[in-house]
From TrEMBL:
Name of the molecule in the record: LysM peptidoglycan-binding domain-containing protein
GO biological processes: peptidoglycan catabolic process
Family membership noted in the UniProt record: Belongs to the N-acetylmuramoyl-L-alanine amidase 2 family.
Annotated GO MF terms: N-acetylmuramoyl-L-alanine amidase activity; zinc ion binding
């Protein structure tokens, strides 16, 4: 089961600016990879450091306001919060693509099978990231690859998963919180442990939810 990791949990720096000029209902979600020989980390304990390094390069090397991606996923089944829902990306290569498409990056390398490790857990993480962007960020149902936005090899071997529909989230259940509801009550309604709902949605102690909030309801 995929797990959501908030910006605070992976040690993100504060952005130097924040744009909400995104219209993802006109596009959807674009899939990326890190590329090159940057292999998937054997130990999950190294993944957060990789994400921090990507943010540092994007902010200090590229001069961008924040990490470019909406979310990032790792082969161990974790989703690292990037710019998040409702925020314009800087990863898709054109102004139109950045305005209309969210960007989710898999922490895997190039097209060579020696570097581009696609695990079931990575696919699960993409499912969670895309479901969040749809339910909380208004993304259209379209999923494409970075190469559909401009001439690039990205997202490497992940592109066949884009093409065959493997990255399409199953089920896609969501719940809009009503006044007075608790995670415990919502969990009982769907037959899912409330702790699992909290985990998938990145809700931590004291587990506060609010009316109108859209929650992803996992299968179990």
């Amino acid at each position: 089961m995929a797990v959501f990791v908030s910006r605070a949990q992976w040690g993100a720096r504060q952005p130097t600016g924040r744009s909400t000029q995104i219209t993802p209902e006109r596009g959807g979600v674009t899939i990326h990879h890190v590329g090159g020989s940057r292999i998937a980390r054997a130990s999950h304990s190294d993944c957060a450091a990789q994400v921090r390094g990507i943010q540092r390069q994007h902010m200090e090397g590229n001069g961008w306001a924040d990490i470019a991606y909406s979310h990032l996923t790792c082969v161990h089944g974790y989703v690292f919060e990037g710019r998040g829902e409702g925020v314009r990306t800087a990863a898709n290569g054109t102004n139109t693509a950045n305005q209309n498409w969210y960007a989710v990056c898999g922490l895997v390398g190039g097209s060579s099978s020696a570097y581009d490790t696609v695990t079931a857990d990575l696919v699960d993480a993409f499912h969670l990231a895309i479901a969040r962007l749809r339910s909380q960020g208004g993304a259209a149902r379209a999923i494409n690859g970075h190469r559909n936005q401009l001439a690039t090899e990205c997202p490497g071997n992940l592109y066949r998963y884009v093409q065959d529909g493997s990255l399409e989230p199953p089920g896609g259940r969501t719940h809009t919180v009503r006044e007075g509801e608790t995670l415990y009550a919502i969990g009982r309604r769907y037959g899912v442990p409330w702790q699992r709902i909290a985990e998938v949605n990145g809700i931590t102690s004291p587990y506060t939810i609010f009316a109108g909030q859209v929650l992803i309801i996992p299968d179990s």
